Amino acid sequence: MLRRLLLLVGAAILLLAPSVDSFAQSTDYYFPEGTTFDPSVPSPEAFLGYEIGTFHTRHDRIVSYMRELARLSARAQYRSIGRTHELRPMPVLTVTSSANHQRLEEWRTRHLASLEGDPDPEVPAIVHLGYGVHGNETSSAEAAMLTAYWLVAGEGAEMDRIRREGIFHIEPVLNPDGRDRHTFWANANRAQPFVADRLDREHNETWPGGRTNHYWFDLNRDWLPLVNPESQARIDFHHAWKAQVVTDYHEMGANSTYFFEPSEPYGSWNPLLPEELYTDVTVDFARYWAESLDEIGSLYFTREVFDNTYPGYGSTYPNFLGGLGLVFEQASARGHIQESSHHGTLTFWFAIRNHVRTSLATVQAAIDKRADMQEYQRRFFASALSEADGYATKGWVFGDPVDHALNRAFLELLLRHKIRVHELSRSVEGFEPGMGWVVPARQPMYRLARSIFERTETFADSVFYDASAWTVSLAYGIPDAELRGTLPLGDEVIAVPAFAVPEVPFSQLAYLMDWRDSAAMPALQAMQAAGLRVEAAFAPFTARTSAGEVEFGRGSISIPVSIQEHSAEDVHAIVSQASMNHGAPVHAATSLGVVSGPDLGSGRFRPVRAPRVLIPMGDGVSSYEAGQLWHLLDTRVGMPVTKIDPADLGRVDWSDYDVLVLVSGAQRSFSGDRLDNLKTWIRGGGTLIAQRSAAAWAAQNELTPNVAAPGIGKPVDPEEKPDAPKPPPEREDYELASEISGAQAIGGSIWQADLDVSHPLGFGYTRRFLPVWRDHSWFFAPSQSPYGTVAQLIEGDAHLSGYISDRNRDRLSGSPSVMADRLGGGTVVLMIDNPNFRGYWRGTSRLFVNALFFGDDIQAPSAPR
Questions:
Q1: Half-sphere exposure (CA, 13 Å, Cβ side) for 32?
Q2: Which of 219, 450, 458, 719 is found 20 to 30 A from 641 (Cα to Cα)?
Q3: 446 touches 387 (CB < 8 A)
């Protein structure tokens, strides 16, 4: 009872931090003893009106403080490098000496020139201090303000040297939208006095939490895919400066202490990067961080847990630019104070101070090691060329022969990463000039280019912190091939080539749009939103058009003029606008009869509904999966959908919707009468799209008559005798448990599926070869309908890239990835693998869009005798 009372009044014995007399700390608490500041520059406390750590600071107030530092001091310059989805600015404060500010652009260009030329010892150290990519890891941004104050207003000869010999870019909030979501929660639920009980609302923010951005993407995985505007702007800035040192400040569970690099040896190191980065460079810096935390008695650990393999982390991507990317993790109060079962009561201000001290130590190390880091970065780019010379693959060719939009998207990604791309000068490996491009291996960005194209099977470890594969060319589903001879290099591509959409000629008959071009998806949505009736071809055909004879694939769209409620002139205007806005070529038919295939009035052209879509999103639902779908439909299709909280499903009039999408976790809202109502709705013609664990649930609850319930962790084997005795497993030492079980987890790898391109879910695909992302252990048997398994991992070795144990390699052979079944008059589509993983799996996202538009037209033909 006494302990509970003490928690409620806010008194705590700080075992992790020094004891404090009150729940507030002045500015002096955060800095080494004897630190002095220019009195003309306000501290964060003085500017904000409260002591740091007593509130969570809103993003706009952080921006205002950075602006104020730049206004008051010639040592600081403020800029916004971009805008978030919610239009919040992305602030960067650049701090250096006033003399350096006068030469800032000169220093930047000289620094970049020195990376591939002669050393330039006069150039200052370039340091990027980044904080808080996860919005609810909030001590980071508070520490950023204090660090900025120290760099701008700190006094003394050593501070003058630091500013003279260094240029510091402070990015105080890497995820403004997520931070404000969490800040509102923490401040709204902040008690007076503070409550340390971990069950208090303050420490348990509601779904989806503040970790992610507007669309619930983890921005710390987005540095390679560049799906979001935050990442795109950030990458542009990093390439403009190529800092030698880049920090990435985080928080972790309340029962931990403090982590700094080096990370776990070997298993977490990226094999494409120089080993000295981990064994020498990082170790040299680590001595500074250890000393800074030893000084205040803060517990810490190194060489464990965290990962440096995936290039898409904020602490790893800078390594591919020749810098030293660094992750810091601090135990989080997830509020203002929280009880820790391991180390007593953790306070917000204590977490802030730890991040401040390692920030200061990083600055000091970067200045002391300035010459060493400059030389390392020069060696990095020189070794990239020499290693490329020794690499068997001399380059990669890529290009889709019909999907102009996909080609442009992939080119834009490569160019944003400053990867050198050339036009294809001659035919090679089935690729043709005009629709093919070449990436040479020998270039400064060799290591990143190789990461994007290479398929990996060899790993130093079998347990992964995150994904084990990130072959982006496979994720895009774009045809590509390795080149080992002389490269057919044409002109270098400086910018994504403009694609001039041909003007749509007027037609009194019909307009035709090829579904194989992914730009057709948003164009179709725009036409339907304007009230046009459209039809889809369920067979290939060659049409007579104003441009001559043109071939069209399955799923291609016909807009017959005579069936519209609009005038022929209005139809032409709507179609032309959609074509121009979305870059989708549209042809004008000159005859309703075709050269080959079904005529435009054939029953093989079927109406395409404008789907009314319902997606449950809320407590218990995977916010990552839900956000990926929301982002796809918002930004790439332009389709408005109804996002409903699971608690409100009882209010739904099911006649108002055609499609229900269930991602992992959403299925928990359907049981009893609600499940019966769902079955009735499907039988009446509704389409259910169920993804990952929701797909397993659908099969288990008899929504798929031809698909058996899956096994988890094992394939379904009809011959298996469950009652047969099994020999006991061999004994293993306890300390090997996580290693052995982790090695059997399917943590993220890429597999080759065979896609039925004649199925409505396969419309628009030109190859049966379909790379799919697998990161779970649900194993389905193929459908009992011979037409129901739409995409299936090939028999034998279907593995394309990423780690997989030998046992799982065999179990995955022949495993379905996408299935479709009929329940009464409706359709159930099982997306066993996530087709929209992290927003950049464009190669499979078309499957989901096809399910929206064509799901109601999936039939269940009788099985052949």
A1: 14
A2: 219
A3: yes
Cis bond before residue 616 (omega within 30° of 0): no
Tokens of 556: 């291609």
Query: In angstroms, how far is CA 290 from the centroid of its own chain?
Result: 32
Burial class (CB in 10 A: 0-12, 13-18, 19+), 694: buried
State how far the Cα of 250 lies from the Cα of 135, in Å rounded to an integer. Answer: 9
How does pLDDT run across 160-213, given as a tens digit for each residue?
A: 999 999 999 999 999 999 999 999 999 999 998 999 999 999 999 999 999 999
Q: How far apart are CA 636 and CA 840, in angstroms?
A: 11
According to DSSP, the residues that pair with 308 across neighbouring strands are 269
Length of the chain counted residue by residue: 865
Report which of 478, 426, 415, 475 is spatially closest to residue 449, judged by C-alpha positions. 415
Query: Residue 246, Cα to own-chain centre: how many angstroms?
Result: 20
Q: What number of other Cβ atoms are within 10 A of residue 858's Cβ?
A: 22
SS (H, E, C) 355-400: HHHHHHHHHHHHHHCHHHHHHHHHHHHHHHHHHHHCCCCCEEEECC
User: Taking Cα atoms as reference points, which of 138, 121, 169 lies closest to residue 363?
Assistant: 169
d(CA 406, CA 782): 31
Omega of the bond prior to 505 within 30 degrees of 0, cis?
A: no
Question: Is 650 exposed, middle or buried, given 0-12, 13-18 or 19+ CB atoms closer than 10 A?
Answer: exposed
Per residue, what are the HEC states of 322-338? Answer: CCEEEEEEEECCCCCEE
Q: How confident is the model at residue 863 (pLDDT cuts 50, 70, 90)?
A: low
Residue 594 backbone dihedrals phi, psi, to 5 degrees: -115, 170
Phi, psi of 650 (to 5 degrees): -65, -15
Please state, in angstroms and as integers, the Cα–Cα distance from residue 783 to each residue in 643, 705, 712, 789, 799, following that order: 31, 9, 17, 6, 22
Q: How far is CA 443 from CA 112, 377, 383, 421, in A?
A: 15, 15, 10, 10
pLDDT per residue over 288-344, tens digit each?
999 999 999 999 999 987 888 899 999 999 999 999 999 999 999 989 999 988 888
Distance CA 423, CA 403 (A): 17
**Tokens 């039925």 sit on residue:** 756
Q: Which residue has the tokens 């006033």?
A: 98
